[in-house]
Amino acid sequence: MVRTYLLRALFLLLVFAAAAMTQEATFSVGGITARRGERVSGFLEVPAGVDAGTRIPVTVVHGARPGPVLALIAGTHGYEYAPIIALQWLRPQLRADELAGTVILVHIANLPSFLARTIYYSPVDGKNLNRVYPGRADGTVSERIAHTITREVIERADYVVDLHCGDGNEALRPYTYWMQSGNGEVDEGSKQLALAFGLDHIVIDTERPSDPQASVYTANTAITRGKPGITTETGQLGQTNFEEITLALRGVWGILAHLKMMATLAEPLVAERVVWLEHYEVVRSPQTGLFRAAVKPGHTVAAGALLGVLSDFFGETLEEIRAPFAGVVTYVVATPPVRQGEPLAMVARVQGQD
């Protein structure tokens, strides 16, 4: 009898060990499954609901050796092309046989917006994907996309990087958001990701939501679930310049080096001098009309400095738009059309500045 029990226990141990080895040997995102040392691309399906469904192109690179899971998400806004192309360039360069851990590449999170060339909003439901996280399975298409990415990507990852750039209407200087949650370990992990990405301007953001069921933003969805995450901005006006694409690509390689996921990489190229921006305000349009910027991204402005002029459809001045405080212009709308409530510029205060 004792021998029978011992044999049964040994059998169960072997079954559990085999299951664990199988789980280690493969990594799945939705229906996309990669074995160790393999790179596989496919689509996450977002089924139709109250409106049309869509697909999300994803690549899973499952390294030959164990390590962290890094999610890289591009195309949250469909007109932000530089990071999208950066991930396309990264895909063939990521050697699964040299990788420790797993990289999930979300090539274009918001395919409806990408194909329709729309800024900010989905052409299907009129919603901003980066304002509806963690989404809803029974919501509109943007909410269903957010729900799918939350469940299949963010909750599977250890680290999340949401890759943005200036949308089709925004002139922007490169910077990174470091979001603080009050969780010391997560905040430090996010800070190190921001430094490893290598941009020399980092915005300290302390005002993101703390409720994981109302996280609103992509990277914040990771943070509210105890995972370090950052949002990066590299590129502007829907352009696909080599410099803007490689800036995003270099940042990703810096994070891979920081996480020690590639033995062939040196230490990340941290900026020699980081400008920490401790407070920011997005200045929004008080009316619908045409905006003519008076500043460029990266300009330092005094409190009350002219940011631009808002006019009506006949060219008559409606308002002068001025800086709420002294700081750096991180981005400014550089094409004329604006609707009431939409961003015109973002001004951020340099840490320690009076």
What do these coordinates show?
The protein is an alpha+beta fold. The chain has 2 domains: 29-258, Aminopeptidase (3-Layer(aba) Sandwich), CATH 3.40.630.10; 279-350, OB fold (Dihydrolipoamide Acetyltransferase, E2P) (Beta Barrel), CATH 2.40.50. The protein has 7 helices and 19 strands. Strands 3, 4, 5, 6, 7, 8, 9, 10, 11, 12, 14, 17 and 19 form a 13-stranded mixed beta sheet that branches. Strands 16-15-13-18 form a 4-stranded antiparallel beta sheet, with no helix packed on it. The chain has a two-stranded antiparallel sheet with strand order 1-2. Strand 1 and strand 2 form a beta hairpin. Helix 2 (81-93) packs across helix 7 (242-258) and helix 5 crosses helix 7 (242-258). Residues 12-23 have low confidence and may be disordered.
